[in-house]
Amino acid sequence: MALYVLERDRTRARQLAETLIEALDRLGHCERCRNLTETQPCGICRDSSRDHATLCVVSSPGDILAIEQSGLYTGQYHCLQGLLSPLEGLGPAEIGLTTLFARVDADAPNEVVLALASTVEGEATTHQIVSHLKGRTRLTRLAQGVPVGGELDHIDASTLSQALASRTELGQ
Questions:
Q1: What is the rounded distance in angstroms from the CA atom of residue 161 to the CA atom of residue 163?
Q2: Which residue from 39, 63, 78, 137 could staple onto 58, CB 3.0 to 4.6 Å apart?
Q3: Other Cβ atoms within 10 Å of 144 Cβ, number
C-alpha cells in the first residue's frame, strides 16, 4: 500500500500520513476497557444501556470492532494488549492480565466471555485466565469449529477435531 500511494498518488499519501499522525495524537486507551478512544471512558463503557454483567475479553481493538459489527453482543469489553508469547517477551503483565483480574474482582460480572484466537498463544492466554478466574465467575468462550459454508474436506484436522469435541445437541 505504501509503495502504491507513493508511486501513484502522492497527495493521498500525504493525507494518509497526516491522518495517521492525528490519530496518534488524539487516540489513547480507555481507562476502563483499554479499547482505543478519543474520550475517557470510551463510548462503549459510557453506554448505560449495555449489559454490565457480561464481560468479553479480546486481544485487540480490532476484535471489538468485529464483534460490534455483528450487532449481537451488548455487554462490556476488556481489551488485552496482545496474547501471551514468551518468545516476544509478552507475559501476563505486558498484555494486561493483572488489569483484567482486578476488573473482574471489582465489577464481579456474571459471565466472562473469552473471545481469543485459536492459536498456541490464544490457548495459553485462555488457560491462564481460566486458571485464575475459575470458580469466581462463569467462564465461556466463543464457539469454534466448522465455519458457515465450510465443507468438511477443506477443513484442517485441528479445526475438525475442535468442532467434533464442541458439538452441541439438536432437537431439545
A1: 5
A2: 63
A3: 13
Which of 108, 121, 96 lies closest to 55 in space, CA to CA? 108
Tell me, what amino acid is at 158? S
E-strand stretches of 47-117:
51-58, 75-79, 111-114
CATH 1.10.3720.10 is right for the domain spanning 31-143: no
Q: What is the distance of C-alpha 69 from the center of its chain?
A: 13
Residue of 60, 50, 62 lying closest to 95 (CA atoms) = 60
Q: What are phi and psi of 101, to 5 degrees?
A: -60, -40
The model's pLDDT over 18-60, given as tens digits with 9 standing for 90+, comes to: 888 887 888 899 999 999 999 999 999 999 999 999 999 999 9
Q: How many CB atoms lie within 10 A of CB 37?
A: 21
Residue type for 170, please?
L
- What was the pLDDT predicted at 7? 82
d(C-alpha 168, C-alpha 110), whole Å? 23
Residue ranges of E strands in the chain: 28-29, 36-37, 51-58, 75-79, 111-114, 138-141
Mean pLDDT to the nearest integer, 5-20: 83
| Cα 172 to Cα 161: distance, rounded to the nearest angstrom | 24
